[in-house]
């Protein structure tokens, strides 16, 4: 019999009742160290006092207001994002996949309005993840995500991650945009080298197509810069943001240059909930903290410490781990045994991590994780690795 909740998830039998910073508390009282942070969503940890204050203060005044009216909290958040990034303008969504929808629409509309209506094709990469909407699964039509959901939307092509020569040949007169994650998340924590991101920017400029960056997972301080592309010293035309920007409140955004956004006029796009006062009040509180250079500096320091300790963990467990991957506090442990075994063994050590493709265990801790918690994480990861290995050998 089908359960009341549509069974589309494989859930671990854990029941968390509340959270405090880097910790989630199970109903039986066990305290789990949370290195998943709701898949890079709880960027400031659980129940951060500034976010609780922003939510409750706004919550007692006004939750929702239609975009028929001006929303000062939304304007403030847009201003913060525009001031802190390449972007000239922002549209707010409630999720990453909605940001994907608009990014695709915006790119196509741009060329349409430029008198080039045939430029509609979007090129995405293998191993990428841009969400679960019809456009997002057409962009990356893996068997897992797309099989049985056809007909898939036309106008998407897939390129091989890392094969830039093949990509250059694929770009044609009908290419509207290239979309890429500066650090692949679901694909197994694969950072795009700075030189490749620079080359991609140049390719787009030379061939006359737009560069869309999906920073839904790697953005909002995760890599130690406000956005990951800053490392490469380039800027996109359009960027998708979500996850961390709401700190746990459903919030996303599409940021764009004035030029790339020029096709989007009144009536061309909209959202009932997108940019509501409650979400934007929380988003402002998140950005107030994370866009602070001193906060980002601290993320980079902790990331260095974390990575150094992870290298030691890999050296101590050569039968379990192959290497450390990632950028900032978006880290991955490439496993030699099934990564799901390590994640599962973590539960017994009261440790939460997230599996990714390519047998990578993802570590996406709250950006506020303390040094002692990083040390504690290593002890628990070490025990989980050893337990997973003996399990593998026994089984
Ligand atoms: C999670 C994610 C999305 C989809 O976001 P949702 O909020 O789940 O719709 C898109 N792109 C990337 C890179 C993601 O990690």
TrEMBL record:
It is an enzyme of class 2 (transferase). It comes from the Bacteria. The modification N6-(pyridoxal phosphate)lysine is found at residue 243. Belongs to the class-III pyridoxal-phosphate-dependent aminotransferase family. ArgD subfamily. Keywords: Amino-acid biosynthesis, Aminotransferase, Arginine biosynthesis, Cytoplasm, Pyridoxal phosphate, Transferase. N(2)-acetyl-L-ornithine binds at residues 132, 271. GO terms for biological process: L-arginine biosynthetic process. Binds 1 pyridoxal phosphate per subunit. The keyword Transcription does not apply. InterPro entries: AcOrn/SuccOrn_fam (IPR004636), Aminotrans_3 (IPR005814), Aminotrans_3_PPA_site (IPR049704), Class-III_PLP-dep_AT (IPR050103), PyrdxlP-dep_Trfase (IPR015424), PyrdxlP-dep_Trfase_major (IPR015421), PyrdxlP-dep_Trfase_small (IPR015422). May also have succinyldiaminopimelate aminotransferase activity, thus carrying out the corresponding step in lysine biosynthesis. GO terms for molecular function: identical protein binding; N2-acetyl-L-ornithine:2-oxoglutarate 5-aminotransferase activity; pyridoxal phosphate binding. Homodimer. It catalyses: N(2)-acetyl-L-ornithine + 2-oxoglutarate = N-acetyl-L-glutamate 5-semialdehyde + L-glutamate. Its EC number is 2.6.1.11. This is Acetylornithine aminotransferase. It is found in: Cytoplasm. Pathway: Amino-acid biosynthesis; L-arginine biosynthesis; N(2)-acetyl-L-ornithine from L-glutamate: step 4/4. GO terms for cellular component: cytoplasm. Pyridoxal 5'-phosphate binds at residues 96-97, 129, 214-217, 272.
């Amino acid at each position: 019999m089908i359960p009341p909740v549509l069974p589309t998830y494989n859930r671990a039998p854990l029941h968390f009742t509340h959270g405090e910073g880097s910790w989630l508390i199970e109903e039986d009282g066990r305290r789990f160290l949370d290195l998943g942070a709701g898949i890079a969503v709880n960027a400031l940890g659980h129940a951060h006092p500034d976010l609780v204050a922003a939510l409750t203060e706004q919550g007692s005044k006004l939750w929702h207001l239609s975009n028929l009216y001006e929303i000062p909290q939304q304007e403030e958040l847009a201003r913060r994002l525009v001031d802190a990034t390449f972007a000239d303008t922002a549209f707010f969504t409630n999720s990453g996949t909605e940001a994907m929808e608009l990014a695709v629409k915006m790119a196509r509309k741009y060329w349409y309005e430029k008198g080039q209506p045939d430029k509609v094709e979007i090129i995405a990469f293998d191993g990428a993840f841009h969400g679960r909407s019809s456009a997002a699964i057409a962009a990356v039509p893996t068997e897992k995500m797309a099989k049985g959901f056809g007909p898939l939307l036309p106008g998407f092509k897939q390129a091989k991650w890392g094969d830039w020569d093949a990509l250059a040949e694929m770009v044609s007169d009908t290419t509207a945009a290239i979309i890429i994650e500066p650090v692949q998340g679901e694909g197994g924590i694969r950072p795009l080298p700075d030189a490749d991101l620079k080359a991609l920017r140049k390719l787009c400029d030379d061939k006359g197509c737009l560069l869309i960056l999906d920073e839904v997972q790697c953005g909002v301080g995760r890599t130690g810069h406000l956005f990951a592309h800053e490392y490469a010293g380039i800027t996109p035309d359009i960027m998708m943001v979500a996850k961390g920007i709401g700190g746990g409140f459903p919030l996303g955004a599409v940021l764009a240059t004035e030029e790339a956004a020029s096709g989007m006029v009144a009536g061309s796009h909209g959202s009932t909930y997108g940019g509501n006062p409650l979400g934007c009040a929380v988003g402002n509180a998140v950005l107030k903290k994370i866009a602070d250079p001193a906060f980002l500096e601290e993320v980079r320091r902790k990331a260095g410490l974390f990575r150094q300790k992870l290298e030691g963990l890999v050296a101590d467990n050569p039968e379990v781990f192959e290497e450390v991957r990632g950028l900032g506090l978006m880290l991955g442990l490439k496993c030699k045994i099934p990564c799901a075994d390590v994640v599962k063994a973590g539960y017994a050590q009261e440790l939460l991590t997230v599996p990714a493709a390519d047998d990578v265990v993802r570590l996406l801790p709250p950006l506020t994780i303390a040094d002692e918690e990083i040390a504690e994480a290593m002890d628990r990861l070490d025990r989980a690795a050893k337990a997973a290995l003996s399990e593998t050998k026994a089984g």
